[in-house]
Amino acid sequence: VTTGMKIGIVGLGLIGGSLALDLKAQGHDIWGVSRRESTCQMALAQAVVHHASPDLSSLDSAEIVFICTPISAILPTLTELATMLDPTAIVTDVGSVKGELVAPATDIWPRFVGGHPMSGKAEAGLSAATRGLFQGRPYVLTPLPQTLPAAVSQVTELIEQLGSTLHVTDPTAHDRAVALISHLPVMLGASLLQACAHSPQRSLAENLASSGFRDTSRVGGGNPELGALMAQYNQAALLAALADYQAQLTQLTQAIEQGDWQRVQAYLTAAHQQRPAFVSDRPL
Ligand code: NAP
Prior knowledge:
Layout: E1 6-10, H1 14-25, E2 29-33, H2 37-45, E3 51-53, E4 64-67, H3 74-82, E5 90-93, H4 99-108, E6 112-113, E7 115-117, E8 138-141, H5 149-161, E9 165-168, H6 171-197, H7 202-208, H8 211-217, H9 224-233, H10 235-257, H11 261-278
Helix pairs in contact: 3-4, 6-10
Bound molecules: NADP nicotinamide-adenine-dinucleotide phosphate.
Residues 10-16, 33-36, 39, 68-71, 73, 77, 94-96, 116-117, 120, 124-125 line the site of NADP nicotinamide-adenine-dinucleotide phosphate.
């Protein structure tokens, strides 16, 4: 097991801070960079990192850098890093979409490996960072055909140290899968809430809503900026997922219109049988 690597982490928020905590506990030398000086000071005070500064050039001798900024800052950060990193350094990111990032990032820095840890929580920022966030969770890597295998294995080793389960796929397949299981549910939850809010029966429905409604609407009521960013950065894959969903809804609507209750039940039975393959009711 490799320990004692000099690891840079840019963006000390929920994901960057949590990565720093776990990789520090594995014996690596953690160099944090965040936009605000106050965040750097907090990261040092809470011993999340060994060193912290708002200055990217502090990472000039890092062996591997995780870019954990908001998605819009990933390519600009990499462009700046590319002027200062050691040519052998590996860079990876944690952005939730990959299609629009991985090819341009690889052009900027050939030793770039796209990544996405499937862990998270509702809170953001360094104060939400916790140990063990990645333990037992999927972590996706999206190398391109030209990505150096040695760079992929180096990132893989660190992911294994986090206790994550590795999945390797291409950026497009990643974005389609994430659109289906993460971004589509946000849009469905939001449209369900809007359908209820604009109904003439709204106030009675408000009073009657219970646990089933709470479960199906939960992600639709989440952070609006994050939801809009999902749609913006994963537009093509989200549109494909919405089209698949609309086709399913049309099938179900037709069976109900026709009063074909056998078909409705068969549809619901099939859905019931599919669910355990996607989620168990154990807490995630
Ligand atoms: P977050 O808690 O808001 O953390 C991002 C941090 O980056 C901010 O706290 C900010 O810190 C810092 N930052 C912003 N712009 C920067 C810049 N230009 N240079 C350096 N630091 C900058 O967000 P997050 O949830 O950790 O998400 C970060 C990334 O992880 C995103 O790309 C997201 O797609 C991905 N991701 C998120 C989740 C999730 O569930 N949240 C899951 C998987 C992947 P200061 O301004 O305080 O310095």
